[in-house]
Write a structure and sequence with these properties.
Elements lengths: L5 E6 L4 H15 L3 E6 L9 H4 L6 H19 L3 E4 L11 H14 L3 E5 L7 H17 L16 E5 L13 E4 L4 H8 L7 H21 L7 E6 L10
Parallel strand pairs: 1-2, 1-4, 2-3, 4-5
Antiparallel strand pairs: 5-7, 6-7
Length: 242
């Protein structure tokens, strides 16, 4: 049951959440969930190569383009709650102050689900740092001993990791498949906002088709045409096997 759930998505760079979970985000919003996006950096240094090849490129110009791109994409997906920390990337440095900020965020919105990067991306250390950071902050949020004025401790929420770009090289193992067939065109439109990384648009369109094939085969539901996959950070717990 999606309606009424709360989801926090923590993205290392401006486009990561769209490539890797844009369909799931759009689906949750369409079905009545509250979705909050935290973008830690615009990917100015490491995710904007095509923009740096343009005449007159500066840090401020690249930042403005990346911000405009991700705002357009978020609007297409239906996102209303998005914040930018504007950290320097390559590498992203995360401090105790950043930990406190994210713990406060988690305790404020009290998400049922957190989506972020999986534990290992062979070619992107920023993603690995962010994954570790988010897991650590989620556990801190659940600890009564981590006392932050004006906040209340949370209960354990579900955590899922994005599928990395270099899937096999990163030893990624899908744990969950989400059908995004009804919102697939929204995801494609959102991906097309990112002209600095055009090569990924086709890649993630094909990936959604491939994961849709897997989802249909595993579930037996032939209506599943497009899907996104996620790693499960914790085992599934319930009264029965499902």
């Amino acid at each position: 049951m999606i309606n009424g759930k709360s989801m926090l998505v923590v993205s290392a760079h401006a486009a990561d959440y769209v490539w890797r979970s844009g369909g799931t985000i759009a689906k949750y919003i369409a079905e009545g969930a509250k979705v909050y996006i935290t973008v830690l950096s615009f990917g100015i240094r490491g995710e904007s190569n095509d923009l740096w090849k343009q005449e007159g490129a500066t840090v401020e110009r690249v930042r403005n383009i990346r911000r405009e791109e991700t705002l357009k994409a978020s609007e297409i997906l239906g996102i209303r709650e998005i914040e930018f920390w504007d950290l320097r990337d390559y590498p992203i440095e995360l401090t105790t102050e950043h930990e406190e900020r994210l713990v406060r965020k988690i305790r404020e919105i009290r998400p049922d689900i957190i989506l972020t990067h999986d534990k290992f991306d062979v070619l992107n250390p920023d993603h690995n740092r962010v994954s570790e950071f988010v897991v650590r902050c989620s556990i801190m949020s659940n600890s009564a001993g981590v006392q932050l004025e004006g906040t209340n401790v949370t209960k354990q929420m579900r955590l899922f990791g994005f599928e990395p770009h270099q899937t096999e090289l990163s030893h990624y193992m899908p744990g969950s498949f989400i059908d995004i067939t009804p919102v697939y065109e929204k995801k494609v439109a959102a991906m097309k906002c990112f002209q600095a990384q055009k090569h990924l648009i086709e890649y993630y369109s094909e990936r959604a088709f491939m994961r849709g094939n897997h989802a249909a085969r595993i579930s037996g539901n032939s209506a599943y045409k497009y899907a996104e996959s996620f790693a499960n950070f914790f085992p599934v717990v319930g009264p029965e096997l499902y």
